[in-house]
Amino acid sequence: MTRLNATEIAFGNYSHLLVYYVQKSYGLETVRLSALKVKQTAKITQVNRLVNDNDEPDLVAIRLESLGFVPGAQVQVITKGVFGGDPILIQIGFTRFALRKSEADKIEIQLEGAPT
Amino acid sequence: MSDALRVALVGNPNCGKTSLFNHLTGTRQKVANYAGVTVERKVGHFQLPSGKNVRVLDLPGTYSLQATSPDEAITRDVCQGKIAEEGQQDAFLCVVDATNLKLHLGLVLEIIELGRPILVVLNMMDEARRRGIQINTQKLSQRLGVPVVETVAVRNSGIENLLHALDQGKYTVPQTELSGLTGEHHQKIETIFKDVVNFVDQEDKRTDFLDKIFLHPVLGLLSLAVMMFIVFQAVFAWAAPFMDGIETFFGWLGETLGAHISQPLLQSLVVDGIIAGAGGVVVFLPQILILFFFILVLEESGYLPRAAFLLDKLMFKAGLSGRAFIPLLSSFACAVPGIMATRSISDPRDRFTTIMVAPLMTCSARLPVYALLIAAFIPAQTVWGIFNLQGLVLFGLYMAGIVSALCVSFVMKFLQKDKSQHALLLELPSYRIPDLKSVGIGLLDRGKIFLKRVGGIIFALSILLWFLCTFPQAPEGATQPAIDYSFAGMLGHLMQPIFAPVGFNWQICIALIPAMAAREVVVAALGTVYALSGADDEAVAQGLAHLISADGTGWSLATGLSLLVWFVYAPHCLATLATVRRETGSWKHVAVMTAYLFGLAYLMSFFTYQIASRIWG
């Protein structure tokens, strides 16, 4: 499930921003859930698992998957926190979950209506 | 009861499992901890219509058997039959919220894979109907390969189906080969869901509407502030008459019983030790019950996670989590229920930090101490035209506690070895009308826990303190107050050199010893040391205020301020320390907390005394 590319290795945690802009400039609409605006709807394309030095499983990513954050699931941002837009309130199916930005960052999405 | 049917309730958080448990068992339930961990173990008993007894275990709620916290691990282990004391269950009742089937089926599928006898309980059917969600129970049962019953856990009539199903032994080992499902769990769920559910709208209009208000940047924070104000008001104002009543009762009890005991030592033990000790515990019960009433109602209604959502960012920056809000709010009444409420914090590091800073919230036991010292040392003058200086100082003391708590948690965040991500992943359930029976049983639980766990310890320690303050007795013709000759008096004199740099005299040092039982005891203890005898506490406090602030013979202003600051930090509350032991299961944590709070108290009092004595002499 892990997908690390050269940029992520080189830039660590902030690599997703770079990846985002690179991919965007190539016309690839890979966006993180954390970038979704209020009331926007999107489809999940993948949940990234972080690998740490001790090879421990990424419990947060595993839990996200068991909560239904799986490829194909539709998500909508209901609202964002008062302070700095964090946490983010996501509607998935019948359920509302509050995710911190760092958690929402693990989730890649495709905006509804964007070309595949 | 060896022939009793053994069942366990499993389900996601917010599936109405606890309501179901409460309606099944009523008050025939026992709350304890699992061996070695501080996870609540709830066992209850009830009878089926046929007269068969059932023993039911309410397992901690979890989204998945892939546990991420200690309580989830307990659920996993019981489901897998790995906990010897629980043995194997005759049946697992998988409780599922009918309005949130997609999410809740995940756990059901995991439990089906264990191959144990299962009965799926489709709960909250009334809510599902209200929202126009139609579920084909028969198809669901076919697809899952296990029996399914519908319930409405908040009504006694709503669980008859379940009782009959249990009576008929309608729980079976899953027959999954018939269901024809393939793929990963979420694919199976999708298939089942499409097959059995007919729904109009995913959104719950009520939740949608209320969230627009309660999560709104302005209205949300405003309503949170109003709610906090009401809770505070209730805890302090509504509880007052009950507390007065309890105090009067114990005073009367002491006098009445005391009059019948002629032996002075025995009389002192019964009146000053046992009855005063018990009274000192029970007096906090009204506040705790009122506080927990509000917490339980807010929890049942689904509001609490909203408050956590609003405040998460702020508290996360300080090294806490939004979930710490309620425990810390409770700590303004009393740190004991506050620390008990930290159980809702899933991340063990966040929970530990919250427990550590909870005693810094200004609890109601500090008020009598602050009132005495402020009345004695702070002039009642108006500053900047509108503010009362005494009120400002009191406000400052509250703020000092809050700011210190934020600083301490911030430092703890840096000291933690485990730097892995703190997860929030908080479900904001649909709003619901609180179930009064559940609230009532919850209150009864909290009250019992408080009296049993904390009461016993305070009670024993109060008697120990009485012993320290009474023996050895004053010799014939003694000139000093009796306490001066006791162990406590000796200790006070021994401590005095240590406390000289913070400006405490030996009288204060002696009074600090009995104040370990509870902070407000320091007022009465100072009264004893200064050999004051007043008709009641108020008279003692008034006399004391004059005495300690008198020119020449009283304390200096610097000493007064230093003692005020001391009480912001010092852990003068054995009940809190005992609760920390209970909740963390470790004396080491108690030692760390005691050391850091006393250290901080000494340090801050030292600066206060040194600076104040240079300014005002």
Automatic annotation (TrEMBL), chain B:
Superkingdom: Bacteria
Subcellular location: Cell inner membrane
Domain FeoB-type G: 4-172
InterPro entries: Fe2_transport_prot_B_C, FeoB_GTPase, G_FEOB_dom, Gate_dom, GTP-bd, P-loop_NTPase
GO MF entry, a single one: GTP binding
SUPFAM superfamilies reported for this sequence: P-loop containing nucleoside triphosphate hydrolases
Keyword match Cell inner membrane: yes
Membrane association type: Multi-pass membrane protein
Keywords: Cell inner membrane, Cell membrane, GTP-binding, Ion transport, Iron, Iron transport, Membrane, Nucleotide-binding, Transmembrane, Transmembrane helix, Transport
Chain segments annotated as transmembrane: 213-240, 274-298, 369-387, 393-415, 454-473, 485-504, 516-535, 555-578, 590-612
CC annotations in GO: plasma membrane
Name assigned to this protein: Fe(2+) transporter FeoB
